[in-house]
Task: inverse folding
């Protein structure tokens, strides 16, 4: 009897200890969630920075002003900061964070005249301020190798619904600003959270392009192809090829659209001849977390902007948007950038293929850590032709007669990357580089529940959440 009792006690004790251990693990992290809104208008504030002071842990708010941030319990006595350009910052100890009441931010704008006339030696025009910021990139950007952990959301949709969604955890390695990105910037896909693909596979446009550049059939036209003669597997391979050349992370991080990081490369958009293709006009002075910022308008110059993309006509644009530069050290905080069709050729092409004149929309923001500016958030949107269809003058009449949906001809691809952690330790960087790296975001992988349990992600908006739920209920393209 005593032996049975002893075993029972040990069993109960083990269960209690196991429960305590599980509870300890569950309590090792703190989840902070809330909504950030304008104090006067009650409108949600999108892309507000939410981070723990003096750490690399952070996130941003979504279009509804909502955020979720997971932090280690060891930081509960540290300060949470919520800031947005043009507003006074909100600060509170993490242990006192109140999720029951919205976070209200008040407007905060500096005097333009007061700042501009403060010193004779400071640049006064928008062009001069931007040139100074570009000159100082070597001082303001990281000069030592580092890693950044981040969250990628890749989505593709027509007007009504999502057709494709990928969510991944990624690691980026960069040896420094001084080194060329082509050889010294690497990306690895660590884990995949979601992967749904519901695009139509009958993309003769992708197949024609695939044959042109891989089988060297230069005079091929998609209109001359017959779907019933092409294997579905061949079409899928062509779609994969087109995905990699248009939507891969390689283009976003190593290419010209990484405006700040790659400004020191040949033919860079923000290179030595930046004023030939861009003009910058000082608009006003704003405040970000107590620091003054130049808000500068980006406009067209004497020459068109071009991306020189292999095998794709990506020329004849003019730039529009805004650039935000810190007043004290000329560090670039944020760029809001669009490339709009401007040449006659590009205008015709954009209207015919994409039904829009905005070909590239880009947002890049940075955060300061140890006196250097690190990437914080990337947003990249571009239209994408899925079906060439009939682009003659009779197109609308023919589409209506055949019952075809014009919305299926155009998709919009959006890539968002939120960086949530910076790793500077040389040993950790070296150890990571010893592993095999792959930036293929298009391959599906098993879902790792434990990995994602406490990984910071970019919160979906209410509309996105609904579209994603609908997308997840249907079948996958590559399962056909």
Result:
């Amino acid at each position: 009897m005593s032996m049975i009792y002893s075993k029972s006690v040990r069993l109960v004790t083990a269960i209690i200890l196991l429960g305590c251990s599980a509870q300890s693990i569950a309590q090792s992290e703190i989840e902070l969630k809330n909504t950030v809104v304008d104090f006067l208008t009650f409108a949600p504030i999108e892309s507000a920075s939410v981070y723990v002071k003096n750490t690399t842990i952070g996130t941003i708010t979504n279009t509804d002003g909502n955020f979720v941030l997971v932090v280690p319990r060891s930081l509960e006595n540290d300060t949470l900061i919520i800031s947005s350009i043009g507003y006074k910052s909100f600060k509170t100890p993490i242990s006192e964070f109140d999720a029951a009441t919205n976070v209200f931010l008040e407007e905060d704008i500096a005097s333009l005249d007061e700042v501009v006339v403060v010193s004779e030696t400071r640049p006064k025009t928008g062009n001069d301020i931007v040139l100074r910021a570009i000159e100082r990139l070597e001082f303001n950007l990281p000069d030592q190798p580092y890693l950044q952990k981040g969250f990628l959301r890749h989505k593709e949709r027509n007007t009504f619904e999502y057709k494709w969604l990928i969510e991944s955890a990624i690691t980026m390695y960069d040896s420094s600003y001084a080194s060329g990105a082509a050889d010294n910037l690497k990306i690895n896909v660590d884990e995949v959270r979601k992967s749904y693909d519901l695009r139509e596979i009958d993309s003769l446009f992708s197949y024609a392009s695939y044959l042109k550049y891989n089988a060297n059939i230069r005079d091929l036209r998609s209109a001359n192809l017959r779907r019933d003669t092409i294997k579905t597997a061949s079409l899928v391979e062509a779609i994969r090829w087109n995905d990699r050349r248009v939507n891969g992370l390689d283009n976003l991080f190593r290419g010209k659209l990484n405006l700040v990081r790659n400004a020191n490369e040949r033919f860079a958009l923000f290179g030595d001849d930046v004023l030939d293709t861009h003009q910058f006009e000082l608009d006003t002075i704003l405040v970000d977390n107590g620091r003054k910022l130049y808000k500068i308008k980006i406009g067209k110059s004497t020459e068109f902007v071009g991306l020189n993309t292999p095998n794709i006509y990506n020329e004849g644009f003019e730039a529009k948007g805004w650039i935000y530069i810190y007043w004290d050290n000329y560090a670039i905080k944020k760029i809001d950038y669009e490339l709009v069709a401007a040449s006659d050729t590009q205008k015709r092409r954009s209207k015919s293929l994409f039904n829009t004149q905005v070909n590239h929309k880009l947002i890049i923001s940075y955060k300061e850590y140890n006196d250097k500016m690190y990437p914080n958030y990337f947003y990249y949107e571009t239209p994408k032709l899925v079906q060439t269809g009939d682009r003659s003058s009779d197109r609308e009449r023919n589409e209506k007669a055949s019952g075809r949906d014009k919305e299926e001809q155009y998709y919009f691809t959006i890539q968002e990357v939120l960086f949530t952690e910076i790793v500077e330790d040389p040993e950790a960087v070296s150890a990571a580089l010893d592993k095999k790296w792959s930036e293929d975001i298009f391959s599906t992988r098993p879902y790792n529940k434990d990995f994602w349990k406490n990984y910071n992600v970019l919160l979906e908006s209410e509309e996105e959440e609904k579209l994603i739920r609908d997308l997840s209920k249907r079948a996958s393209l590559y399962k056909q």
About this structure: The longest helix spans residues 2-26.
